[in-house]
Amino acid sequence: MSNELNKQSWNKLSKYYQSSTGISLTDIHYAPYSPGEKELKVIGEVKGLDVIELGCGGGQIAIVLTKLGAKTVTALDISKQQLQHAQKLAEREKVTITFHQGDMEDLKVFQNSSFDLVVSVHAISYANNIENVLSEISRILRVGGRVVLCTIHPLQYVLWEALEEKSIEKIQSYFSSEPSSWDWIDNMKTPIAKFTDRAHRYEEFVNGLISNGLILERIIEPRGYTLEELNNMDLNDVPYHNHMIDEKFTRINQIIPFSIIYTARKIASE
User: Fold this and answer.
1) What is the pTM of this model?
2) How many domains, the chain?
């Protein structure tokens, strides 16, 4: 799995992605067409905290964290183009965020015990080595600090294609450790960027957190809005959406979750 490939692909995709996707600047998103922080209350109070977001993309979540009253917000992403968008958006929203270009597997630019809260939404699946990420998160987190990690639900890798194509033969192995390679398709069904990522089993996340001194507090598996709910909502109130409702996605999102969220707290080392 190549971080360099993913970096180049995000640089290539950024302009299209940011123009074709509606991402809230008042709520934190966890999955497409699904409830955000206002409903799920995953992160909770951030006032007075030093916060870092890993894999910040276009900066929307970092901006929301700043608006919620975080003392400082730092945001890191591997893509230069995504960070340029994030910086412009932060200036437009008149918020102060420190942006860094870098890889979440190597956070040496940050000192030990620098942050009270680490947030990462749909970025860790692109990492080569989840153990490196969790180790670095533990290192930069203060004792008593919290981490909120949202990633692709492993059931999506196992069942999503089978449900989409209504074919049992498309079911994938839950135990596969091989990375997935896939193309991002635009509105004209044209591939515009290639990515590699990998599903992480429950045991990888839970055991990885524990081995790095992070005690699991909650696991959340958000269920997406139904088509009826979406049709009765202002789409701008949905924290993450395309400009038109994807009915097939919405149907599958009622059968298996798109995302899984892990929250944990750092305990003092013995």
Assistant:
1) 0.95
2) 1
Q: Six-digit token pair at 44?
A: 């909770």
| Gap between the Cα atoms of 36 and 29, Å rounded | 5
Write out the two tokens for 34: 């699904």
The 3-state secondary structure of the chain reads CCHHHHHHHHHHHHHHHHHHEEECCCCCCCCCCCCCHHHHCCCCCCCCCEEEEECCCCCHHHHHHHHCCCCEEEEEECCHHHHHHHHHHHHHHCCCCEEEECCCCCCCCCCCCCEEEEEEECCHHHCCCHHHHHHHHHHHEEEEEEEEEEEECHHHHHHHHHHHHCCHHHCCCCCCCCCEEEEEECCCCCEEEEEEECCCCHHHHHHHHHHCCEEEEEEECCCCCCHHHHHCCCHHHCCEEECCCCHHHHHHCCCCCCEEEEEEEECCCC
The whole-angstrom separation of Cα 107 and Cα 52 is 11
User: Domain residues for 12?
Assistant: 3-266
Express each pLDDT in 112-129 by its tens digit.
Answer: 999 999 999 999 999 989
**Residue holding tokens 């149907």?**
251
What CATH number did the domain enclosing 218 receive? Answer: 3.40.50.150
Tokens matching residue 175: 């135990």
Residue-wise pLDDT for 134-184, tens only, equals 999 999 999 999 999 999 999 999 999 999 999 999 999 999 888 889 899
Structure tokens, 59: 């900066």
